[in-house]
Design a protein that fits this description.
With 299 residues, this protein is an alpha/beta fold. The chain has 15 helices and 7 strands. Strands 4-3-5-6-7 form a 5-stranded parallel β-sheet, sandwiched between helices. It is elongated and about 70 Å long. It starts with 5 loop residues before the first helix and ends with a helix.
Length: 299
């Protein structure tokens, strides 16, 4: 069971600490326990209830009425108020609450609703990414167990693959060509899968090689496929001290191709990038990058 400070609750829920204290004192919506040093800590149940209360109050419901709802009534009211597709913060809070309960049907319903109302790419960017960032905070706090994290990532992975399968394929001879892969030992695939979707949605041809790709195989791939661009995501691999060497070797193996390198390992240190390398720091930067190619260049 997680133990949260009031500042943790503020960071995760978006509700100011003084508001949380007021709700706790006036309406007893949370049940903190005190440590031996007399510091209040909050449980997973407290966080889940706060997320649901915040969702309803954000929709204009009075806290005095919301506080009287049972857990079942609270959950039903949250589902019923899921109407504004542009209230992204509320949607993220509702997804987090469903994750803490391991409520896969609710997660699926919420994600499908966001996709239907916003369109797939907008739903991922405005709801999916902030949701995953909050999941990361919970993971760091020790309050997201592996089963919960795997439930979320695999569900979103399925959504991306399903959406990609609906896109009209293009011929490699008629469009600019991209190779997408993850380094050997790298398994964090969600960002690369979304890049694959975004590229195909813009009529690029993509050779998707997926996880755990040995770098020495890329030279042969590039010789046969002749990609305009080679893209990878560096999250956990290679070792931080080996990132510069990995980049240099990749540039040597993929001569004639632009390299797009994304991920936390690219942002966490000073690197000397070859002229052929582009480093979008955010997914929005990546989307802007692929929009810079005019239709005539794709043909």
């Amino acid at each position: 069971m997680g133990q949260f400070s009031i500042s943790d609750l503020e960071n995760i829920s978006g509700i100011k600490a003084h508001t949380i204290r007021m709700w706790e004192q006036r309406y007893s919506i949370l049940q903190p326990v005190r440590t031996h040093t007399n510091i209040r800590t909050y449980s997973d149940d407290d966080l889940r209830r706060l997320l649901n209360v915040a969702t309803l109050c954000g929709q204009g419901h009075r806290i005095s009425k919301v506080a009287r709802l049972s857990e079942q009534e609270l959950g039903a009211a949250v589902i019923a108020c899921h109407t504004d597709p542009h209230d992204y913060a509320r949607q993220v809070n509702t997804l987090l609450a469903a994750t803490l309960e391991m409520d896969e049907p609710q997660l699926n319903t919420l994600l499908n609703s966001a996709i239907k109302q916003l369109g797939f790419e907008e739903a991922i960017m405005q709801v999916g990414y902030p949701f995953l960032q909050r999941i990361g905070i919970l993971w760091q706090a020790g309050s997201m167990n592996p089963a919960q994290e795997h439930l979320v990532t695999n569900l979103i992975r399925q959504k991306i693959i399903a959406a990609t399968d609906t896109l009209t394929p293009v011929l490699p001879s008629k469009s600019r060509r991209w190779v997408l892969f993850l380094p050997e030992g790298e398994l964090h695939e969600l960002a690369l899968l979304f890049m694959n979707y975004a590229l195909r949605a813009r009529a690029y041809h993509v050779l998707y090689l997926g996880q755990n790709m040995p770098q020495q195989e890329l030279q042969a791939v590039c010789k046969v496929y002749q990609p305009h661009t080679v893209c990878t995501v560096l999250t956990a691999v290679p070792e931080r001290s080996q990132v510069q060497a990995y980049i240099n070797e990749l540039a040597e193996r993929c001569v004639g191709s632009t390299l797009v390198l994304y991920g936390s390992l690219m942002a966490a240190q000073d690197l000397v990038l070859p002229a052929s390398v582009s480093n979008p720091r955010l997914m929005t930067d990546f989307l802007s990058f692929i929009e810079t190619v005019s239709p005539s260049q794709k043909e």
